[in-house]
Design a protein that fits this description.
Elements: E1 24-27, H1 33-43, E2 47-52, E3 71-72, E4 75-76, H2 79-82, E5 87-90, H3 96-107, E6 111-114, H4 120-123, H5 128-131, E7 139-144, H6 159-165, H7 186-209, E8 213-218, H8 219-224, H9 230-237, E9 254-258, E10 264-268, H10 272-281, H11 285-288, H12 296-300, H13 303-315, H14 319-328, E11 333-335, H15 339-344, H16 346-350, E12 354-358, E13 364-368, H17 392-395
Parallel strand pairs: 1-2, 1-6, 2-5, 6-7, 7-8
Antiparallel strand pairs: 3-4, 9-10, 10-11, 12-13
Helix pairs in contact: 1-7, 6-7
Length: about 400
């Protein structure tokens, strides 16, 4: 159980007044889906105890995400987002000693988060039936590739597989090219959000009845839950929604266009009154007064004509002119933001979405702010991510 037990910095004082103060979370998962859910609880005042494997002769120990992508002093910058405000303890859950310690921690927990392959916790003697025997109000969030039941329950499943099997990849990209992925772990994040929602509903139920329960989240199902009307469309007449590049099937105009100075701009002119204002701003009174184009069904029949016309208009003007004109006409629009644009944007700054934390060596690091915004009990950025085993002395004493 040995680890770096140096005293860490005080957490942001606002964490003590968050809406989840008094809630104790035991995080047994690693990498993305489970820990991302744990981040939400920490941001809103819960005490989140993160269990990590100790260092040994096979490796440095800890959640593998500690060592992913851009590093500072050997630790991933992502770590300070994903695990901010959590307490790290090191336990070998494959050993009887580590399993016994985890059971003791679970006795005092309100929520256990895990994202191992189904059956793993049971193999270690840490399944829900065992942990809830002496803690009947325990909630266990179980995030896995394919859920705790069904023929694929024991199949390994990552976010990329969930995005593929859930249908998201099929509709992403251009029709004449292979499906593409976001350069983000979107499938894991979607599952985490479903998990947080499930836990909060289960907490409400527990507050009324005292009963705990399991929240079973499958990555592929979470992605599938975002697939809009693709299923009833297929059921109704066999329609299979395909890749359409930058536009949105059957909703016109909603696309990305390029300005004279090569800035990419998203324009959402698909509301009937919005489209009329867009047409007038472009000097296209023929569109504005065309009864066929007065509703989305009519515009959908002439989508290519409309997209070509908007692109021609954008190609004749710089982005600054276009964005000013669209804002004046109250047509939803934005250039496609890079992270540099995000950091410099006054809206992000005004909403507290660009926060700064200080690492132990004095390095200042910008991190995302807290979502959502609660008026009475707002969350906060609780600090940096913990060093490996930093809280062993505090949590595992006795």
């Amino acid at each position: 159980m040995a680890g770096n037990e140096k005293a860490g910095p005080q957490l942001n004082a606002s964490a003590a007044s968050g809406p989840l103060r008094g809630i104790k979370v035991l995080e047994l998962g690693q990498l993305i889906a489970g820990p991302f859910a744990g981040k939400f609880f920490a941001d809103f005042g819960a005490e989140v105890i993160k269990v990590e494997p100790p260092a040994d002769d096979k490796g440095p120990g800890g959640d593998p995400i500690r060592y992913w992508r851009v590093l500072h002093d050997g630790t991933s910058l992502w770590w300070h987002v994903q695990s901010r405000g959590k307490k790290s303890v090191t336990l070998n859950l494959r050993s009887p000693e580590g399993q016994a310690a985890a059971k003791r921690l679970a006795l005092e927990a309100d929520i256990v988060i895990e994202n191992f392959r189904p059956g793993t916790l049971e193999k270690w003697g840490l399944g829900y039936e065992v942990l809830s025997k002496d803690n009947p109000g325990l909630l266990m969030l179980r995030i896995s590739g394919f859920g705790q039941s069904g023929p694929m329950r024991e199949v390994a499943g990552f976010g990329a597989i969930a995005e593929s099997m859930g249908g998201m990849r099929y509709v992403s990209g251009f029709p004449d090219r292979p499906p593409v992925r976001m350069n983000l772990s979107i499938g894991d994040a979607i599952a985490s959000l479903h998990g947080v929602i499930g836990v909060l509903m289960a907490l409400h139920h527990r507050n009324q009845t005292g009963e705990g329960q399991v929240i079973d989240v499958a990555l592929y199902e979470s992605v599938f839950n975002l697939m809009e009307s693709t299923l009833p469309e297929y059921s109704y007449n066999g329609t299979v929604r395909e890749r359409t590049g930058t536009n949105l099937t059957g909703i016109v105009p909603s696309n990305t266009y390029t300005s004279k100075d090569w800035v990419h701009i998203a324009i959402g002119g698909n509301g009937d009154s919005i489209f009329k204002r867009l047409a007038q701003t472009m000097g296209r009174d023929d569109w504005a007064n065309d009864p066929v184009l007065g509703n989305n069904a009519g515009r959908a029949t002439r989508a290519q004509e409309i997209d070509d016309g908007i692109q021609a208009w954008c190609s004749a003007h710089d982005a600054a002119f276009l964005l000013d004109a669209l804002a004046e006409a109250q047509v939803p629009s934005s250039k496609i933001f890079s992270i540099k644009d995000i950091v410099e944007d006054p809206q992000y700054q005004a909403r507290g979405m660009i926060e700064t934390i200080t690492l132990d060596d004095g390095t200042e690091l910008k991190v995302p702010g807290v979502v959502p915004k609660l008026s009475k009990t707002p969350g906060c950025v609780p600090g940096r991510g913990p060093t490996l085993g930093e809280h062993n002395g505090e949590i595992l004493k006795g």
